[in-house]
Amino acid sequence: MTIGRRRFVQSITLAPMLAYLCQRPGSAAAATVSTERFSAAFSEIQSWVGRAFPGAVVAIGMRGRLVALQSFGKISSAPDAPPMPRDAIFDLASLTKVVGTTTAAELLYDRGLLDLDRPVAAYLPAFAGTPGHERITVRHLLSHSSGLFTTDLLWQHSRNRQELLALIDRMPVVWEPGSRYQYRDENMILMGQIVEHVSGKPLDRFVHDHAFLPLKMRDTAFNPSARQLARIPPTEQDDVFRHRLVRGVVHDENAYVLGGVAGHAGLFSTAQDLSKLAALYLRGGKPLLKPASVAAFTTRQADPPGTSRALGWDMPDAAGSFAGPRASPDALIHTGFTGTSIYIDRRRGAFIILLSNRVNPSRDNKRIADARIAIHTAVLSAIDGAFNEAKS
Fold first, then answer.
1. Residue 19 has what pLDDT?
2. Of 134, 105, 115, 285, which is closest to residue 195 (Cα–Cα)?
């Protein structure tokens, strides 16, 4: 091994958690894995620094436990930017859909308060006035098969939360609900409203009290505190809407108009916090959810035909989607526009959290698509190697 490689390997930080943590709700305690095992995977991640993103944090789990937590690159693309901290708090973008809104929906379903096949209008009367809306169910929202569609950018036609939600209430139904998959933020914005209606609490308060707090996800929240700003990587230089560098407030324009709390975007979190949510799924939902409730949301849907969607969650397609060719076909996956992703592999008992600010300084950099495939392929190869080594 060269001196440079040895120093790189020694810089890898394996999560130093004590074994007793795995007995505590929400923990993702560290397992024992050789530092050498991930050196090639971490070299692959490092190779994308400055190309796909200025910096990133990755968390890797095996046997349901966090085994590696490492940062790469810098906190921004500025020449004098400091190194990316391992506890960086990222704008999750669309990971909000699964980390926040889907989790909240599962909790309500688990308690018998949410009917997946009930019409949305039964929960949200203001949604009932447009033709076709009466046929859209909660399941259609969660599987992105509602038929809602518009080419309008809602934030360009609304000045506040009330006006934007009213636009969704009037959005046309272009396809018969359940007949076609069409990923739409509006589906999960509506789902967030349903959570608020059923729970009687704002979305951010409900998911904090009933998910993030019991899981000890201490750095996961909407509208993060100004005291955390030094740990929050900036996202995009916005020269169209806010005319400043976006940092510490949600990047997504619709979520910004909605006040930073929305069903589709707005959450900020760390890789370590997300490891705790991933571990929850690998435990079948315990201690927050019954296994049957988790199964209802994590089973690939029959409709529309050929869909890769579960409820809220996506699953790999035949090519493995962003997780690459080594992905398990029933893995739970999702990405976020800012450069975030989560991969939960129930067959392997493994997870991969990749958080980056690839939109810094601009969303024009599209290399995250190739980077995700390469990184997940390298990490899964290392995980498989570790499992095979343990068997021998």
1. 32
2. 105
